[in-house]
Write a structure and sequence with these properties.
The longest helix is centred in the C-terminal third of the chain and has 18 residues, at about 265-280. The chain has a domain at about 130-175 and about 200-285: Nucleotidyltransferase, domain 5 (2-Layer Sandwich), CATH 3.30.420. The chain has ten helices and ten strands. α3 packs across α9 (about 310-315) and α4 (about 95-105) crosses α5 (about 105-120). By secondary structure, the chain is α+β, with helices and mostly antiparallel strands. The strands form three sheets. A five-stranded mixed sheet has the order 8-5-4-9-10, sandwiched between helices.
């Protein structure tokens, strides 16, 4: 829909005013014919402030932002588009404090804006994972040993939800393509390097606990039967062999070994991105909003092989969601 965006400056140059932003949003949402967000009828009259549904049963007025994350916003679409670009292009995200400085808005506005973008990035209709699948759980929260003496929580180290929030992660291993690159002739010999490009898909979900009764239903709803499921030797994964080809790898402290072709390194790599992002960018994430941050990191990870422009344009297929400030802070 647009030219390539290689930087924020190019985004701002392209979306130079609200008219260009509105046209872009309308084209991406409806194409050539507006569709009523209230009743779904295709076709509308153009009014001085937007549109009016042609259906006699409806006849409601609407704009290009009605029913989207932009509805009733006081922020210009130009700033919105810049924020979406920054939030999706930065590998580990961007904090509300940094965004407020970059776009000259308040921190409160930037925080609300980023949470609406995270809602937009959520995958509400994920495809079932299959083939070789890795499953692991992690706990998000500070280490007890780093806390002040009067803030330490007894028995909270290791797999404990007493002071941390558990998150279940599922990763599908998938080889996309192979490439062969020919190098220059070196000392009369032609050097050929074979490059393997891998593209894995990840799904993660905040859970109440890591008991089998909690984890198994999630896996059954997201992973096809008869797939190979690789986990560690945690007791909650026992019984998966009834539905899957289950491989359990016994990990010791700091040991992430590969048994044959089986490993959990893919999902462990995703956890490192998630935790480095939280520690380095956000510093602290409340359990109340953790699921939205998981949406953000999952989306960027699953679209990491595409360009920033493609990722930016893809987000506009997800804008038909609404999050009010009242609901966010409830």
């Amino acid at each position: 829909m647009t030219s390539q965006f290689n930087s924020l400056l190019q985004v701002l140059d392209y979306f130079k005013d609200e008219a260009v932003c509105t046209t872009y949003l309308a084209a991406g949402r409806w194409g050539n014919t507006p569709s009523c967000p209230h009743c779904g009828n295709v076709g509308a009259y153009v009014t001085n402030r937007g549109y009016k549904c042609k259906a006699k049963e409806c006849h409601k007025k609407f704009t290009v932002t009605t029913g989207t994350i932009f509805e009733n916003t006081k922020i210009s679409l130009r700033i919105w588009f810049a924020a979406i670009y920054l939030a999706t292009a930065h590998k580990k995200g961007i904090s509300s404090l940094q965004l407020c400085r970059d776009l000259n808005i308040t921190q409160k506005t930037a925080w609300f804006l980023l949470h609406r973008i995270r809602l937009m990035l959520a995958n509400n209709a994920p495809e079932m994972l299959e083939g070789n699948v890795e499953v692991d759980e992690t706990f998000v929260g500070g280490k007890n040993k780093n806390r002040h003496a009067n803030k330490k929580i007894e028995g909270s180290q290791g797999r404990s939800a007493a002071d941390k929030t558990p998150v279940l992660g599922i990763a599908q291993q998938n080889v996309v393509e192979y490439k062969v690159r020919d190098h220059k002739v070196i000392k009369g010999r032609k050097v050929v390097e074979r490059i393997v490009l891998k593209h894995s898909q990840v799904s993660c979900e905040v859970v109440a606990n890591t008991e089998a009764a909690t984890l198994h239903p999630i896996m059954l709803s997201q992973v096809k039967a008869d797939s190979k499921v690789v986990t560690d030797a945690y007791a909650s994964y026992k019984g998966l062999n009834k539905t899957y080809e289950h491989v359990a790898i016994k990990h010791t402290e700091g040991d992430y070994r590969t048994v044959g072709d089986n490993h959990t390194n893919t999902i462990e790599g995703f956890w490192s991105l998630l935790k480095r992002g939280i520690i380095g960018i956000y510093h602290n994430v409340s359990p109340k909003h953790l699921h939205r941050y998981c949406n953000e990191f999952t989306y960027r990870y699953n679209t990491r092989v595409v360009t920033d422009t493609v990722r930016f344009e893809d987000t506009f297929e997800r804008i038909n969601k609404r999050l009010t400030y009242k609901k966010l802070i409830a």
